[in-house]
Design a protein that fits this description.
By secondary structure, the chain is mainly α. It has one domain: Up-down Bundle (Growth Hormone, Chain: A). The protein contains 15 helices and no strands. Helix 1 (10-32) runs antiparallel to helix 5 and helix 8 packs antiparallel against helix 12. The longest helix is centred in the first third of the chain and has 32 residues, at 104-135. It comes from Parazoarcus communis SWub3 = DSM 12120. Keywords: Membrane, Transmembrane, Transmembrane helix. The chain crosses the membrane at residues 53-71, 107-130, 137-159, 221-242, 248-271, 283-300, 306-328.
């Protein structure tokens, strides 16, 4: 029993963190956000139109929402150990199948299944490893596993851009598939064999029964809804906005997504560190302000400066809002870790689902994709206001710098 909080050998520490990060590479980098750099190419190939592209994105987010809702039901550790590896493999197989599908209806179905499996993995993998870290007094390191999202964005950008001249249509997914399958197999194996808590080490209060929404947690949920809508427009349509605002041949047409991907690489470490120093709530306020400026960049400074600012500021912040919110919410309800994580991701998925839908409606009315960014900037202002109203969380060992004396109590 005394060994639970004892220092861990390096191999026990880095393997779970790396396994969770690799899972996020597979489902978020290669499975989901590879669609963003591929989208202009697929449209140019005649594989899909811009309206259809927005519809495919919408159904992928519908799947993501359904997957997160499923994870609320499947929150017990034993359930996670069975479902998580299967969801990882299914996600990788969807990426493989997309490389051979030309029928729009079948492609849409694959994007839906990809979204469902992505939602399950994005909830369960970080939640499983966060609980493991918390048992060992290392929850402050939890943000490092989100490095996998940044690495996945960078990897998907490279796999989309480098072979672009030699591939066409659905075949553009082949490089993603070749990377996704071995990574998914390794991560699934490692996460399914993660050590379990010792018998009797989990207190009865850890039973996932109480309310998730109360006076303390409601502002966190409301803020996170704004974050979901705020970030999804640039992370889905930034290359399209770049094409609207920049001349043909400009380096940012392909470079904007690369800058965003590169910016995410240090984001997990940066916001993990700021959360430890400032408190997670205060760091989250700063995060939303910077992220909001990034989303508004193409509107405030149309052209090169705005597109560059959007890529840099959104890329360096959106992962921080995820890890800080997850940790802050867990500190408010410390015995409902996987369940509150699933609830937050469900809300996040529901909010971000509206982004592509609203973009599609605006395009059908003859508007530009750039104008939809006003909605994203307003959503992040909403997130900032509600985070300012978040009350302090009880200080706990390894929570990653949640300092109640630095938080303004909610009214």
């Amino acid at each position: 029993m005394s060994s639970i909080n004892a220092p861990n050998p390096p191999n026990r520490l880095w393997i779970p963190l790396l396994a969770a990060a690799v899972a996020l590479v597979v489902v978020h980098g290669l499975g989901r956000f590879a669609y963003t750099p591929l989208l202009p190419m697929l449209v140019s190939d005649g594989f899909m139109g811009l309206d259809a592209a927005a519809a495919f994105a919408t159904w992928n987010y519908v799947g993501y929402l359904l997957g997160a809702m499923l994870a609320i039901r499947l929150h017990q550790p034993d359930q996670i150990r069975r479902i998580l590896p299967a969801a990882l493999i299914v996600n990788a197989l969807c990426t493989v199948a997309q490389g051979f599908v030309t029928q729009p209806d079948l492609f849409l179905a694959l994007r839906l299944i990809n979204g469902i499996s992505n939602g399950v993995v994005f909830v369960q993998a970080p939640a499983l490893v966060l609980e493991w870290l918390a048992r060992h007094g290392l929850a402050a390191m939890s943000g490092l596993m989100y490095f996998g999202v940044g690495a996945g964005l960078l990897l998907s950008n490279g796999l989309a851009s480098f072979p672009a001249e030699w591939l066409q249509g659905a075949a553009r997914w082949w490089p993603m598939a070749l990377a996704a399958v071995p990574l998914a197999l390794w991560s699934a194996h490692q996460l399914s064999h993660l050590d379990r808590p010792a018998a009797g080490s989990v207190p009865p209060a850890a039973s996932p029964t109480g309310r998730l929404l109360d006076r303390a947690s409601l502002p966190v949920f409301l803020a996170y809804a704004g974050a979901g809508l705020g970030y999804i427009l640039p992370t889905t349509f930034l290359p399209v906005v770049a094409r609207e605002q920049l001349e043909a041949g400009h380096w940012l047409l392909n470079g904007a997504w690369l800058i965003l991907a590169l910016s995410t690489l240090g984001a997990a470490w940066l916001w993990n560190k700021l959360g430890s120093r400032m408190g997670d709530r205060n760091a989250l306020v700063l995060n939303y302000v910077v992220q909001g400026l990034g989303v508004a960049g193409p509107l405030l400074w149309p052209g090169e400066i705005g597109v560059f600012a959007c890529a840099l500021l959104v890329g360096s912040t959106f992962l921080g809002s995820v890890l800080l919110t997850q940790r802050l919410a867990r500190a408010l309800h410390p015995h409902q870790g996987p369940r509150i994580s699933a609830a937050l991701i469900t809300l996040y998925g529901c909010a971000q689902l509206t982004g592509p839908w609203l973009a599609r409606m605006w395009l059908e009315q003859g508007g530009s994709m750039s104008d939809t960014y006003w909605l994203g900037a307003g959503a992040l202002l909403w997130a900032t206001v509600w985070t300012l109203r978040t009350q302090g969380a009880p200080a706990q060992a390894g929570t990653g710098g949640i300092h109640p004396q630095r938080c303004v109590p909610g009214r």
